[in-house]
Write a structure and sequence with these properties.
It is built from twelve helices and twelve strands. With 360 residues, the chain is of the alpha/beta class. The strands form three sheets. A seven-stranded parallel β-sheet has the order 3-2-1-4-5-6-10, with helices on both faces. The protein has a three-stranded mixed β-sheet with strand order 7-9-11.
């Protein structure tokens, strides 16, 4: 573990800090910075305190179970904690679930973000001038707000928004709210938009963990359509480093794209997982895990391609990903092999790998 420097750190509130990306950020902040972290999470199905076990005994870590929609609770929390930085990651985040039940996405992602912004604004106005200048509200978002790319081109920070699913529409709305609170009220907000994340503690409704676990259980590997949809893959620990930089060094009113420079089609990702497991799991029910691949009806409104231009964060903040897709995927597969109790508990009750998002 990296030695924490002796200088005094900031106080962070991290909403959604028990989720996949949020917990990676919290682990990074505790292990590699001097900052104090207060996690706020209402522990929906995708929130898991086990993802915070590596930092749970640290004196700089605090967990608060609360809902960001609860304005009174958030106001009291801000007054008690006195944060220097708010990193807002609490969100409903799965496209398929947004197709089946969009209301929760509007409530959490739009109304929840509004509630948190307004709470932060009142708190920020009460601060002395020096602390107001240093305060940051970091809204963490997705590249899906930009819509779908053709065969060429990359999403930049100035790409026009064109959301295509209830999930991406709700995140686009929350991005606009964060920017509006800066331009209208002066609240020092920054926004980041990331490409598809993968890595340890990823809830198994998403592509990479679902394919890994289905392989291990000898179940079919459902690939939407013909598997040609392309995503830019980002190892979650690389993303956590980027978010810490944006939150502490980002310029108010600006946005930063974070991508892994690792475009792969969904089918290529599944084949890569199968090849890794062929090597790592000699005892299996099939000769090759790729035999389990099955093509299923595509998701309604499935965007064809996402790809991020991350040159601004590289130029302005000095961030580059440390993992290639190959090295990050190998680490991810190994983590799931070494942490069966974590995912077996989920697969036994909360989520069994069933198909979601088939409404038309």
């Amino acid at each position: 573990m990296e030695v924490v420097p002796p200088e005094a750190g900031k106080v962070f509130i991290v909403t959604g800090g028990a989720g996949f990306i949020g917990s990676a950020v919290v682990r990074h902040l505790i292990h590699h910075t001097p900052h104090r972290v207060v996690v706020v999470d209402k522990l929906t199905y995708a929130g898991d305190l086990a993802s915070l076990t590596p930092v749970s005994r640290d004196q700089r870590f605090t967990f608060v179970r609360a809902d960001i929609l609860d304005r009174e609770r958030m106001t009291a929390l801000f007054e008690q904690v006195q944060p220097d930085v708010v990193m807002h990651l609490a969100a409903e985040s799965h496209v398929d679930r947004s197709i089946d039940g969009p209301a929760a996405f509007i409530e959490t992602n739009v109304v929840g973000t509004y509630t948190l912004l307004h709470t932060a604004l009142d708190y920020w106005k009460s601060l002395p001038a020096s602390r107001r200048e240093a305060f940051r509200f970091h809204h963490v978002s997705t590249d899906e707000v930009f819509g779908s790319l053709g065969a060429d081109g990359l999403f930049t920070e100035t790409t026009a928004y064109d959301p295509r699913s209830p999930y991406s529409a709700s995140k686009a709305a929350s991005d606009h709210l964060a920017r509006a609170w800066h331009h209208t009220y002066g609240l020092p907000t920054v926004v980041s938009n990331c490409s598809n994340n993968y890595g340890p503690y990823h809830f198994p409704e998403k592509l990479i963990p679902l394919m890994i676990l289905n392989c291990l259980e000898g179940k079919p590997l459902p690939v939407y359509g013909n598997g040609s949809n392309v995503r830019d893959w980002l190892f979650v620990e690389d993303h956590a480093r980027a978010l810490a930089l944006v939150a502490t060094r980002g310029v108010p009113g600006e946005s930063y794209n974070v991508g892994g420079n690792s475009e792969r089609s969904n089918l290529d990702v599944v084949h890569a997982i199968c090849a890794l497991l062929d090597d790592m799991v000699p005892e299996r029910t099939v000769a090759r895990h790729a035999e389990l691949i099955s093509f299923v009806n595509d998701r309604p409104g499935h965007d064809q391609r996402y790809a991020i231009d991350a040159s601004r964060i590289r130029r302005d903040l000095g961030w580059v990903p440390e993992e290639t897709f190959e090295s990050g995927l190998a680490k991810t597969v190994r983590w799931y092999l070494d942490n069966r109790p974590w995912w077996e508990r989920i697969r036994s009750g909360v989520y069994r790998g069933e198909r979601l998002g088939i409404a038309s």
